[in-house]
Amino acid sequence: MDIPADMLVDCGLLSDEAQKFSDILKEIHVQDDAELWKQLIAQVLTPELPFSIHRLLYQRVFHQRMEQGKPAPAWFPGEQEQSDSHLSEWLRDLNLNGMEELQDWSIQNREAFTQKLVDSLKIPFLEQPQQIMNLDTGVEQIEWLTGAKLNIVESCFKKKSDQTAIIFQQGSQKLQKLSYQELKALTAQVANGLQEAGIKPGERIAVMMPMTPESVAIFLGIIAAGCVVVTIADSFSAEEMQVRLKITEPKLIFIQDVISRNNKQLPLYTKLESDSKLPAIVLPESETSQIPLRSGDRLWSEFLSDHHELTYAARKPHDETTILFSSGTTGNPKGIPWDQTTPVKAAGDGYLHHDIHPGDVVCWPTNLGWMMGPWLVYASLMNDATIALSDAVPTSRAFCEFVQNAKVTMLGLVPSIVSAWRSQDRVAGLDWSQIKVFSSTGECSNPEDMLWLMSRAGYRPVIEYCGGTETGGGYITGTVLKPGVPGLFSCPALGFSWFLLDETGNETTNGEVFFGPPVIGLSTRLINRDHHEVYFADIPPGPGGQTLRRHGDQIEALPEGYYRAQGRIDDAMNLGGIKVSSVQLEELLTQATGVREVAAIAVPPEGGGPSLLVIFVVLHEGVLFVADQLQQEMQQIIRSQLNPLFKIHLVREIEQLPRTASNKVMRRKLRDLYQGLKL
Fold first, then answer.
1. Were 188 and a residue from 6, 233, 310, 549 both cysteine, which residue would form a disulfide, CB within 3.0 to 4.6 Å?
2. Is 603 exposed, middle or buried (0-12, 13-18, 19+ CB in 10 A)?
3. Bridging pattern class, strands 562-568 and 549-558
4. Is 233:365 a contact under the CB 8 Å cutoff?
5. How far is 230 from 206, CA to CA, in rounded Å?
6. What's the burial of 333, exposed, middle or buried (CB within 10 Å: 0-12/13-18/19+)?
7. Can you tell me whether residue 214 is helix, strand or coil?
8. How many whole angstroms separate alpha carbon 280 and alpha carbon 421?
């Protein structure tokens, strides 16, 4: 590989340094073996060199190596990962060599894998399971931990007391800490408060709050009492909140009065209808709330019980604990229940693939309304780690400073956040050297952005992580035992079998993902849909005769066991890390002035990365197309009636939407049209 010295000087090196590295690069060629590539990385991708050099190197060789069947890692496992990681411990215990053997073992021995995961997480049972995996009713309705009684919240506390459970910062205040003992006491006040209010086990309680220490205690307290949390993202509009409340019919809602963002107070409590029969427990953002309450509603301070002893309601493994919502290919959201087994998957992925250890500090800007909120709670607390929470806007400098000051060791995010940090240089001058692992989920990653992110912590790996609300965690991920390639997944999740199939049902290297159940944590029911119809109906058997389950992602398999995300293959899309139905957007946007038909698509930006929302419109006859004006109107509709986080990239007019013989919009052809291809 030859990069002239003058090009290196332009990137910020002194002339003698430039000549030195130009000579190094001349000695190493793209086709050389992995050891030479590793030497190159060690010499060039160092914190002492400007990122412009790293970027230039990667631009020059990444695609060349991939085309030759050789991945281009920017991180290699060190001695710590090879000897002290949880995965390395499992390999020694099982006398296996490497991730591929471990993955094969986890699929061929699903019951033993699940048992070992339960043992590794030290999950306490009120009554021990008689059987780990019962397939008497088939893989669609598998029964896990048969005969057991437990309350998964007990796994979050165990015998911990003075260790820090949550470190948090509100506004410009100093960092504050909540010990496991203090969090347990607050959780008990919530659980006991529910019992004193006459709430019975199995009844549903809604939560619409930002991620705070109180919301974590509320989440855990509801489940400890044997009740079910209905999570609603605080960014949703009043209309979308009401849709979810109507589907679940909760007995009570915990809600904050307002939310502060960018020095503005946004209403939350007032999203509740004034005549709603749903009683609310209202938490003030500041010390006192200035918002008048509806009749029957109570303040947080009035609700909390005086009793600080936490007791755990005994529940069956498949009793519901949480209901989350995910958009499918129709307008209404799917209500997906998590049961007592789902946290085993979430915490297990944290334990195995993110290598979370006791004392680690785990930060993931998210919300209980999205699956990564409950994931963060379980993956942190069940692994004896600390949750790091900040109310700062994730793309802000203040949030980046919080990551430094809280000494975060595992930082999760969506790729859009990384793009914003990089474009605005939010991390400049900060010390992120304590970070051991990054993780990225929710969107397709841009390799250059991820290389930049790695460089902010002296080149630590990014665990690309992809799954879904109905999986309780990831089906494809990364690992600390395999070299990390920016923007690429490096392995299937342990215990998870899946296949890439083309449109004819044959295996391919670039196709739709189909799961091969069973997997602990994978949903077995929906509260407002037919689970079989959504996931299993009309799917032929897999390559080995397996029962297959559709998922909707498109994945490309690359050399040496790496994978690249290609977005959604169905009518759903991921925007800002949130899955939303195209149909849901289209139904809303037909309200726009002069619009007859709408089609919404997600397209990758040049170079890859988070999807962009593009809207195609068919206008009524005689209506003049004014792109900027229509885009502003549509953006306002999305902001007020759906979610302000969804941003329209472009609106284009089209004479007629391409449709199939059955009248279904052919979004793939619209994507081709956007990218300049012929219909």
1. 310
2. middle
3. antiparallel
4. no
5. 4
6. buried
7. helix
8. 37
- d(CA 652, CA 471) in angstroms, rounded, equals 35
Report d(CA 143, CA 546) in Å as an integer.
18
Comparing CA positions, the residue from 284, 313, 277 lying closest to residue 194 is 313
Q: Are strands 298-299 and 334-339 parallel, antiparallel or unpaired?
A: unpaired
**Whose structure tokens read 């502060």?**
260
How much is the pLDDT for 54?
A: 74
Residue of 452, 439, 437, 433 whose CA lies nearest to 375: 439
d(CA 99, CA 412): 23
Q: Which amino acid appears at position 345 of this protein?
A: K
Cα–Cα distance for residue pair 235/284, rounded to 1 Å: 17
Reading phi first (left if > 0) and then psi (alpha if -120 to 50, else beta), residue 125 is in beta
Element (H, E) at 556: strand 549-558
User: CB-hemisphere CA count at 13 Å for 490?
Assistant: 27
Q: What is the 3-state secondary structure (H, E, C) of 205-259?
A: EEEECCCCHHHHHHHHHHHHCCCEEEECCCCCCHHHHHHHHHHHCCCEEEEECEE
Which residue is it, tokens 């195609």?
A: 616
Instruction: With beta carbons less than 8 A apart as the criterion, state whether 355 and 333 touch.
Output: no
Residues 581, 667: contact at Cβ < 8 Å? no
For the record, the structure tokens of 556 come out as 């490309």
Distance CA 86, CA 97 (A): 14
* Euclidean distance between CA atoms 429 and 423, whole angstroms: 15
Q: b or e along 370-392 (b: 16 or more beta carbons within 10 Å of the residue's beta carbon)?
A: bbbbbbbbbbbbbbbbbbbbbbb
Tokens coding 83? 């000897």
CA distances from 35 to 38, 73, 77 (A): 5, 11, 13
- What secondary structure letter does DSSP report for 300? H
The answer, yes or no, to whether residue 608 has pLDDT greater than 80, is no
Q: Quick one: tokens of 70?
A: 């050789």
**pLDDT of 276 above 80:** no
Instruction: Name the nearest CA neighbour of 437 among 81, 73, 70, 51.
Output: 81
Average pLDDT on 95-116 reads 97
pLDDT score at 275: 64
Q: Which are the contacts of 160, defined by CB distance < 8 A and separation ≥ 6? A: 180, 181, 384
How many CB atoms sit inside 10 A of residue 115's CB? 15
- Position 14 confidence tier, pLDDT thresholds 50, 70, 90: low
Helix (H, G, I), strand (E, B) or coil at 432: coil
Tell me what pLDDT residue 578 has. 74
Tokens of 271: 């999203």
Please spell the DSSP secondary structure of 463-514, one letter per residue: EE-EEETTTTEEEEE--TTS-B-TT-B-EEPTT--EEEE-TTS-B-SEEEEE
| Angstrom distance (rounded) from CA 69 to CA 61 | 12
Tokens in use for 324?
């989350």
Identify residue 634 by its one-letter amino acid code: M
The C-alpha atoms of residue 125 and residue 5 are separated, in whole angstroms, by 64
pLDDT value for 269: 93
Give the count of beta carbons closer than 10 Å to the beta carbon of residue 493: 27
Look at residue 164 and give its three-state secondary structure.
strand
Inter-residue contact 279 to 297 (CB < 8 Å): yes
Contact by Cβ (8 Å): 282, 253: no
What would the two tokens of residue 17 be?
Answer: 């340094």
Burial readout 151-187 (b: 16 or more C-beta within 10 A, e: otherwise): bbbbbbbeebeeebbbbbbbeeeeeeebbbebbbbbb
Share of the chain above pLDDT 90, in %: 64
Give dist(CA 577, CA 465) in Å, integer: 12
Give the amino acid at 476: I
Confidence grade of residue 228 (pLDDT, cut at 50, 70, 90): very high
Q: What is the pTM of this model?
A: 0.88
Answer whether 459's CB lies under 8 Å from 465's CB.
no
From the CA atom positions of the chain, what is the Rg in Å?
25
